[in-house]
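Morning!

This is the sequence you dropped in the shared folder:
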Amino acid sequence: MRRARTAVLLAAVTAVATVPAAAEARSKTPHLSWVRCYGKTCTDKRTVVRGGDVKLGGRRFRRGMRVIFKASTHSKKRTVKTQYVSRSRLIAHVPGNARSGRIYLTAKHGVRTNRAGPLHVRAKPRSRAIPVDNGAPSGTAFDGTAMWIWNMPKTEGGNPYAIVTQAQQHGVRTVFVKSGDGTNYWSQFSSNLVSTLKAGGLNVCAWQYVYGSNPVGEAAVAARAVTTGADCFVIDAESEYEGRYSQAQSYIRSLREAVGPDYPIGLSSFPYVDYHPSEPYSEFLAPGGAQFNVPQVYWKTIGDSVDESLDHTYRYNRPYARPIVPVGQAYNNTSSADVFRFRQIAAAQQSAGVSWWSWEAASNSNWDAIAQPLTPFTGVPPATDWAPLAYKSKGDLVRWAQEHLQAAGQTVAVDGAYGSQTVGAVKSFQAAHGLPVTGEIDTATWQSLTANYDPAPQTYSRRGAKASAAGAKMPPPRYEIPPSLGSGH
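The structure's back. Tokens below.
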């Protein structure tokens, strides 16, 4: 009898201890509150088209979560990546084989949410051909097709005449030749090389990998390439520049003092802006900075399809309001079909040009796909929306929005964190400009901010190499392109 009472007491104690543990586990589990259609293809909140987008709302969302749709597959479901907006908002594409029904989210280690919906899924609009149009030409060397050269001796044996011949045979009108690495000028970018390539009908641009430890010295190296005869110049700023806002501002100011306000400059960096919250895109692309945005869209290295990688890149780079001239992947045995698809989408997105990394690594099939006459893009037109921002979003795009809100007369700190003050500033701006008052920055709000206001200039702390801006110490959640595989060294 005593043993029985002891067992009962032990069971009761265990049950009491288990309740808080279970409650704590539930408090950490992501919760899906709602899902609705998102974007221009929507007719109502609960109806989506295959190939369109949905927005998901809830709590405790994480980066890397996937949404599970009902689908016409053997397993009767389809897993799709999400775009992380904040801990309470995600965006996802609707797969081509999705079916109507309820959805849920999953994360690593078997974590899954409750179901939400149902969503009514209908067929995507009929495919239509988009006329080939590479966008409004800029009148600079960024127009048309370009190839990047890193090591001249490994490029057609260093023979400039062979470079001219290969370029002419494949429709390449511009070459980007490495001219510097940090504060070191590369002698391969010489006046003799420039004059020979130009005599063959090519535009010749220079590019430099920068680090930020000596921005004034780096700018002097860049200016030397311009005086050597470069038709345009590209800044290649990657992981070393993360958090270095003051240095980016100093570099741009020094370079502009040397080359003038109108000389064509481009910024080439990581394409997924939301993965790099402290990369100073907003300083390199600010008024007086680079006029062209040249993101490195290496889809195979990233692990996404051509369509996915370009869609993500354009969406998160549009808010900087600079012409986007993407760099495609011509290395690591990329297929000719992917190279051609990249060209089609860039043209449909109204980009005036594309370039390819790199001359040395491009296969014969890559060259053939670059030279192939471009046919109209067919299929569902690429997305044209701008990156959404909402409460608890973080990063350089938030800083960029805050700078514009300041210029519009709103009281808001520029710290890269979308808090309650930023929500209030956005609501006030939207009300003043006849926009739906949501407190979230959508495409229409972005367009109104960037069309009507220049970003308010910022002053940064000089203490420490990287502690240069409020909120600048935000580590990247991941590198879609590993630093060692970028255009760099």
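Headline: Residues 267 and 440 are 28 Å apart (CA to CA).

More detail when I'm at my desk.
O.
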